[in-house]
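From the pipeline queue, job 12 of 40. The input is one protein chain; the requested action is below.

Action: predict structure.
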Amino acid sequence: MSVSNDKIPTNLLILDSKNYDKWHKQMKVLFGYQDVLDMIADGITHLGKEATAAQEVKFKEDKKKDYKALFLIHSCVDSDNFEKVGDCDSAKTAWGILEKAYAGADKAKVVRLQIHKRQFELLQMEDKETINDYVTRVTRLGNQMKSCGEAVSKQNFVSKVLRSLTPRFDNIVVAIEESKDLKTMTKDELQSSLEAHEQRMDERGNDKAKAEVALQARFNEKNKKSKGK
């Protein structure tokens, strides 16, 4: 990606019928990066009959910025969307047409948010799932909710994870709830504590398995000796 304001970054997302929300966010950043965001928000103030020389200079500069913003829009839409804005004479007009065309995207986002919130509430750790894998699943769903306009707070994230772990984590959950301030606890702190407990349980499980194998081996050896007498 170019770092010069004179060049347009490459590999930009192209607007199609399915990605308006992501494209909209990208373009707002791109307009800011290219210093033309005011052309999208406010447009150009046209000159009056008695414009001063300074106003004429500013108008010329603004017109150049407007063409630049319009070029960015043209460069980041597919052929179907270009048909919607190809004849527009200003970036603000083109931007408004696309916003209106995809107004339904906001309604779809509300529906997706409700689905994600329901999934978030029902999410439970699976018996053979690791802490890392489960926290990753919760984080991914939280990110999907955020993309739909509602972020999961640190407190809600921590609370969700603690109340949805498998029973083998009951002891550490009680310890965390009694010793930590859940209002300020971060995701990383929670995950670190749970993974440390998980590692200790795994080590104890391995030691127990080794002890059972050794006991079975001794039992088998005694049987062989008994049969050999």
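Job complete. The chain has two domains: 20-102, 105-228.
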